[in-house]
Design a protein that fits this description.
The protein has 226 residues and is an all-alpha fold. The chain folds into 2 domains: 4-120, no CATH class; 164-216, no CATH class. The chain is 56% helix and 0% strand. It is built from 13 helices and no strands. The chain has helices spanning 4-7, 52-65, 72-84, 89-99, 101-105, 107-117, 122-130, 142-163, 165-168, 178-182, 186-196, 198-208, 211-216. Helix 2 crosses helix 6 and helix 11 (186-196) packs across helix 12. The longest helix is centred in the last third of the chain and has 22 residues, at 142-163.
Length: 226
């Protein structure tokens, strides 16, 4: 069995030259009541700009090395390490994801957080959280994922609608006249919507034009306006 102090280094990645990682002082590991949204975005908004290609490349190197190995023993090893230091997967993921002030600012944790958020594997992870593989008996997190997706969609729609507000609004203080209605340029509106509100436009487009219709009507363009 490894010593308790050895577990603290288990999650710490090493550079290709195997430069030793020196853990932070124990005094910096105190609990924090800080909520993720209490941190000003400007304090860590540049984190995603820290050479994401490096993290992505590192993950691919590790994946290639593990291609012929059974990952289950390694995963169990890590889970045992977390158990030894009083963590489980939910607590670990929350801490990694800006869960505490210390984890937000720690350089090594920031590196690993960026590696996850920039990884090609993230979309597959989220997909499995939403719908677990058929052979799994565990109920996936579909309700939580769908509620989260709805919240994100509403925020995106609200932001995108602000971008097309000038195109969609009628002149202030004027009654709508016949010339106003007949002078509407629908092609321009469609163009503006597609450019400045792509998520909303794509959503409405797919709601109005089902995959079955797309298969049948291969020569028709639903954006066409006569």
């Amino acid at each position: 069995m490894m010593r308790p102090e050895d577990w603290s280094n288990l999650f710490c990645a090493r550079d290709e030259d195997e430069e030793e990682y020196i853990p932070a002082d124990e005094s910096s590991h105190s609990d924090s009541d800080l909520e993720p949204m209490d941190i000003e975005e400007t304090e860590y908004e540049d984190e995603m700009d820290e050479s994401p290609a490096i993290q992505v490349g590192r993950t691919q190197v590790l994946r290639n090395r593990l291609a012929e190995e059974d990952l289950a023993p390694k995963v169990k090893y890590v889970l045992q390490a977390m158990k030894t230091v009083g963590l489980d997967v939910p607590i670990f993921l929350d801490a990694l994801s800006w869960g505490t002030e210390e984890c937000t600012r720690d350089g090594e944790i920031r590196y690993q957080r960026s590696a996850l958020l920039q990884s090609k594997e993230l979309s597959g992870i989220l997909l499995h959280w939403w719908k677990a593989p058929k052979q799994s008996r565990v109920k996936a997190a579909a309700p939580a994922m769908e509620a989260f997706a709805a919240t994100c969609s509403q925020a995106i729609f609200h932001r995108e609608l602000k971008g097309v507000a000038d195109v969609m609004l009628s002149p202030v203080g004027k009654n709508i006249e016949e010339d106003t209605l007949t002078g509407v340029n629908f092609k321009e509106i469609i163009h503006q919507m597609a450019v400045w509100a792509p998520t909303l436009w794509t959503t409405l487009w797919n709601l109005a034009y089902t995959p079955e219709q797309q298969k049948r009507n291969t020569s028709k363009n639903p954006d066409k306006v006569n």
